[in-house]
Amino acid sequence: MESKFLVFDKYTTPGRKTPMYAVKNKQSLITLGAIYFYPAWRKYVFEAVNDTIFDASCLIDIVNFMQEIQAEWRAGLKK
Fold first, then answer.
1. In Å, what is the CA distance from 36 to each residue of 16, 33, 49, 54?
2. Is residue 1 part of a domain?
3. CB 3.0 to 4.6 Å from 48: which of 24, 33, 42, 69, for a disulfide?
4. What CA–CA distance (Å, rounded) separates 79 from 26?
């Protein structure tokens, strides 16, 4: 997904079945938070770094990205 102000960098960590995504400022590449799968809810969630602020367009981009990866995860279950 293309965002005007954000970059979603995929990474993996040992012991996790699902990838995580660092949410970064596109210009400075400063990490603003992380998107990861929360097993108790069976959904991807966003956890922001302390003292970060977002406008509506950035939040919409984050939600749209989360919906995309959630759909991919669900499609993988049906295989």
1. 10, 10, 14, 19
2. no
3. 33
4. 34
Band (7; pLDDT cuts 50, 70, 90): very high
Report the domain count for the chain: 1
Three-state DSSP class for residue 75? helix
Q: How many CB atoms lie within 10 A of CB 28?
A: 8
- Residue 29 in any domain: the answer is yes
Strand residue runs (E) in the chain? 6-11, 20-25, 31-38, 43-48
Backbone φ and ψ of 37, nearest 5°: -80, 130
Residue 15 lies in a domain: yes
Nearest C-alpha neighbor of 73 from the set 42, 47, 28:
42
Structure tokens, 26: 């596109």
Give per-residue pLDDT as tens, 44-69.
Answer: 999 999 999 999 999 999 999 999 99
